[in-house]
Amino acid sequence: MSAHPVQSIVPETGAFLPHSHFWTGEAFAQERERVFGRCWLYMGVFEDTNVLTAEMAGLRFELRRQGEAMDGVCRDGEQVRPLQIDRCGALVFARVAQDGGPTLADHLAPYGERLATMSANCLNPQAPVGIAFQANWKALVENTMDDFHGSTVHPDTIHPAVHPDWQSHLVTERHGANSDSRWLLADGTAGWWAKLDAKLRMRRFAEEPFYRHTFIFPNFYLATFYGATVIPHRVDPVAPDSSVLRWQLFLPTTRLETAREQAFHRSTATYLIQSAGTVIAEDCPVCEAVQQGRPGIADLPHITGIYGRRERRILDFHQAMLRQLGETE
Ligand SMILES: [Fe+2]
Questions:
Q1: 229-285: per-residue pLDDT in tens?
Q2: pLDDT, tens digit, for every residue of 215-230?
Q3: What is the CA(143)–ligand 1 centre distance, in A?
Q4: How many whole angstroms from 85 Cα to the centroid of ligand 1?
Q5: How far is the CA of 283 from the centre of ligand 1 (A)?
Q6: What residues are paired with 222 via a beta bridge?
């Protein structure tokens, strides 16, 4: 028996985005303007570069750094609009320039401070990775927020890496559009990280034996392991039914002196990138199957699923999208 009472939520009509938002060109165009043309969006880290670019829903973001100054534009066909750029620690965010709207600190609340602390570990950058999904970007966001799929979708990867009693050792926090969840690592996994730490003397932002990810609306999450490794992720919409998951691994060390240490760091980073790739390859067919199945329930608007206590943040995301799209006030 679970220690927690089951509290399932059957959402009311209107609490969800219409199903069609997952495949129509109209919904995609609306999101391009009202979500990606307005919100603060994660752009990357100026770690070993002075230029950052991103493409989301047909909008092209171009940022430059010159000394301490940052500037940039958003290109949409012929239209070129200036960007407002701000940082949270090392993490660079931008949005199409506008009057009013939340500051970056407001947008990240209540996680700004923690993200800034974690971003100090954006050291030793590895090559960015992009993996294409034949699914709407929101299907990937929902997948990320589904804390329950570890045992079913990742039985040989994530599931054995986290504490078997996840009912007690999974902590999910909800704060409106943003949220955080963390799993206690299994003893064996925590031991593996401790050995790695002894060899690499990793930089740690916290002494925490967790796998954690912090989601920031609309399409950013920062995954971390052991209070050391940080992996910023962003889901870039490409078309109504396709998207790219982009991520970059940082394996921060406090000292990399000898060739042997450097070689060990390189091989560990390669191993972690391969492991993350394996996990994402397990998520991909699930998201793609959801994408293909979704129109099949379009004629059944009352079918919205039943959500458990820890799955409320998927509903939170839908409601944040509805607010951003201006469909509810
Ligand atoms: Fe997954």
A1: 999 999 999 999 999 999 999 999 998 889 999 999 999 999 999 999 999 999 999
A2: 999 999 999 999 999 9
A3: 6
A4: 31
A5: 5
A6: 214, 232
pLDDT in tens, 135-190: 999 999 999 988 778 878 888 888 888 888 877 888 999 999 999 999 999 999 99
**φ/ψ (deg, to 5) at 24:** -90, 150
Residues in the chain: 329
pLDDT for the residue numbered 166: 72
Element (H, E) at 113: helix 112-119
Given CA atoms 242, 128, 116, 167 in this order, what sign does their dihedral have?
Answer: positive
d(CA 323, CA 329): 7
In the reported structure, the alpha carbon of residue 153 is separated from the centroid of ligand 1 by a whole-number distance in angstroms of: 7
Whole-angstrom CA distances from 137 to 115, 118, 133, 284 are 23, 25, 8, 12
Q: How far is it, in rounded angstroms, from Cα 62 to Cα 74?
A: 6
Q: What is the pLDDT of residue 2?
A: 40
Report d(CA 50, CA 103) in Å as an integer. Answer: 24
Domains and their CATH numbers in the chain: 19-37+124-325 (3.90.380.10)
Q: How far is the CA of 280 from the centre of ligand 1 (A)?
A: 6
Provide the pLDDT confidence category of residue 328 given band limits of 50, 70 and 90. Answer: very low
User: Nearest 5°: phi and psi at 79?
Assistant: -75, 130
* Max CA separation in the chain (angstroms): 63
Q: Which amino acid is at 127?
A: A
* CB neighbours of residue 170 within 10 Å: 19
Helix 259-293 to helix 187-200 angle, to the nearest 10 degrees?
Answer: 140
Rounded to a whole number of angstroms, the CA Rg of the chain reads 20
Task: List the shell of residues around ion ligand 1, using CB closer than 5 Å.
Answer: 283
